[in-house]
Write a structure and sequence with these properties.
By secondary structure, the protein is an alpha+beta fold. It has three helices and nine strands; from the N terminus they run βαββαβββαβββ. It has two domains: 78 residues, 2-Layer Sandwich (Signal recognition particle alu RNA binding heterodimer, srp9/1), CATH 3.30.720; 88 residues, Roll (2,3-Dihydroxybiphenyl 1,2-Dioxygenase, domain 1). The strands form two sheets. Strands 1, 2, 3, 4 and 5 form a five-stranded mixed beta sheet that branches. A four-stranded mixed beta sheet has the order 6-9-8-7, covered by helices on one side.
Length: 167
């Protein structure tokens, strides 16, 4: 599961539904409920005490896909999403079976491709593989990745990468 703070939870949900067939599992905090805020919330979540969580929603992509917890917050200051060169979590990777179709769907939903589809990195570069980074409408970096013939591993590998439908 991953958590993403977005500027508008309904618009983000619409993007994930249109681009990746996401489904809403539940609203952890709806617009009809009081925001989560205050000293205790700030301490529990490591946010500024003046920040208010105004909406919270869980969505799921696919049958085996990731749960994504969306947050909409009001804060005195918010930074733009990080890039790959920044320290910390910097992108969400979504495994897709047909990368060209998935890319076109994501673009139609409002995403922006940073490049065309390209090969994956070492150990992911089996026949038919592909990868492309897109930015969601609010700037979060999302990698679309397809490895239909699976990963291969060095002799000293301690584990295998989880791939939907393959493990």
């Amino acid at each position: 599961m991953a958590g993403i703070t977005v500027p508008n939870i309904d618009q983000a949900t619409a993007f994930f539904k249109a681009a990746f067939d996401a489904k809403i599992t539940y609203d952890g905090l709806s617009q009809n409920e009081a925001p989560r805020a205050g000293q205790l919330t700030a301490k529990q979540l490591g946010i500024q005490v003046s920040t208010k969580i105004v909406r919270q929603r869980m969505i799921v992509i696919g049958q085996e896909g990731p749960g994504i917890e969306l947050f909409q917050m009001e804060a005195d200051s918010q930074k733009q999403p990080v890039s790959l060169q920044d320290i910390g979590l910097n992108h969400l990777s979504i495994y897709v079976s047909n990368i060209e179709t998935a890319l076109q769907k994501a673009l139609k939903a409002g995403g922006h491709a940073l490049s065309g589809v390209h090969g994956n990195s070492k150990y992911e570069d089996s026949l038919g593989n592909g990868s492309v980074y897109i930015q969601a409408p609010w700037g979060t970096l999302i990698e679309l990745q397809s490895i239909p013939n699976g990963h291969y591993y060095p002799e000293d590998s301690e584990a295998k990468v989880w791939t939907p439908g393959r493990n």
